[in-house]
Amino acid sequence: MPNKKSIPEIMPLTGLRGVAAWWVVLYHFHLYFHPLVPTWFSDFIARGYLAVDLFFILSGFVLFLNYARFFEQLTLDGFRKFMVARFARIYPLHLTVCLIFLVNPLAIHLFSSDGVIGGRYDPTYYVAMIFLVQNWGWSETLAWNIPAWSISTEWFAYLVFPFLVLLVQGCLRSKRFLVPAIVAIALVIYLLFWSFGTDSIGQNIQKYGLVRCVIQFALGMVACKFFLVTRHWTIKLWPVYLAGFAATVLMTVFLDLPDFMLLPAGFVMLILGLSDPRLIWPRLFNNPVFVYLGVISYSTYLFHYFVKDWVKFLLIPDDGQAGWGVILVYLAAVFVSSVILYHLIEKPGRSFVRKIRFRRTAAVQE
User: Does 287 reside within a domain?
Assistant: First the structure.
């Protein structure tokens, strides 16, 4: 069980989050990269949807690390504080981006000769997106800000997080159960998506995205529990983690295995291997560039699709061919907009919500 002392941020994991965000950025432009880059790099970009699965596991890991100690007993006050903290973290930027996306159907109406408003810009879906419930299983499509589907499922995971904490803490009191639990959850992921009849964990997001998120979120929580009881051994275990991660990647690629068979367990080993900053190889992700990309990664992830829409609208011809100039404009615009949104919206918005909550609490106490 985590102690009551504050646990310092694990900076290599912040850097990993930045790398994962940019993997998604590249993925959503991979059709334009394909003719310009080597096949191996094109294949890597085309699997960028897996960064979302890494996000889910990493999110469960980090939230368990920081908040599990507050749910030794489930109380309404503790639940409220947790949800306010998560709301402050994700909603101000989400709402801002939702409002910005209204520009798209307006532009279609004003400037496109063959564009039809509807479909991707369905008003019902927009309302659901505002309330972060658009990917809770009721919709048959993804629309508007496509990547926001995962924010919707994460919001659901936040709602059940305290109960998952009680389940993990209650059922896994002995550390000898932790590795079997990780293996069992990874096996359940494989069996679930095999039973769904999908070839990839990234298929049919509108139907299976919520399950995909919550079960991998829980996997990250159990992995964190394992980390907390074995962190003094990490310096000895890191070769095992690194070899395990490499093995899952190589077997998936060269044996053409389904991505949901081994990679969730592989991502767990990657996270565990990066969780001790004393080691040499986590320093690759602990450098200032990757850490800053991690700090602004939520802005990057949430806004890059809007940038993609407009780069495609303004700069890509009808034949769908984009040169390096267009690609560099896309990447630069994503980075600059991420920096601006983080410093002008995301960070101040988070502080604003928390201040409001603090003032209300103080007023009640008075």
Answer: yes
Task: Provide CB contacts within 8 A for 269, sequence distance 6+.
Answer: 240, 241, 242, 244, 245, 248
With contact defined as beta carbons under 8 Å apart, do 308 and 34 qualify?
no
Q: What angle do CA 296, 299, 302 make, to 5 degrees?
A: 145
DSSP string for 256-283: T--HHHHHHHHHHHHHHHHS-TTSSGGG
Please state the pTM of the whole predicted model: 0.91
Residue 165 near residue 222 (C-beta atoms within 8 A): no
Retrieve residue 287's tokens: 């450098």
Q: Which amino acid is at 47?
A: R
**The pLDDT of residue 360 is above 70:** no
Looking at residue 71, the DSSP 8-state letter turns out to be G
- Does residue 99 lie in a domain region? yes
Residue 358 pLDDT greater than 80, yes or no: no
User: Count of H helices and E strands in the chain?
Assistant: 16, 0
Cα-Cα-Cα-Cα dihedral sign, residues 152, 23, 182, 236: negative
How far apart, in whole angstroms, are the C-alpha atoms of residue 26 and residue 49? 10
Q: Distance from CA of residue 241 to its chain's centroid?
A: 21
Count of domains forming the chain: 1
Count of C-beta atoms within a 10 Å radius of residue 335 = 17
* Residues of the domain holding 81: 11-358
Q: Which residue matches tokens 């267009």?
A: 326
CA distance 48 to 210: 19
> How far is 294 from 288, CA to CA, in rounded Å?
10
CA 297 from chain center: how many Å?
Answer: 9
Asked if residue 3 is part of any domain, the answer here is: no
Token output for 3: 């102690």
- pLDDT per residue as tens digits for the range 134-146: 999 888 899 999 9
How many alpha carbons fall within 13 Å on the CB side of residue 324?
A: 2
Does residue 98 fall inside a structural domain? yes
Per-residue pLDDT at 139: 86
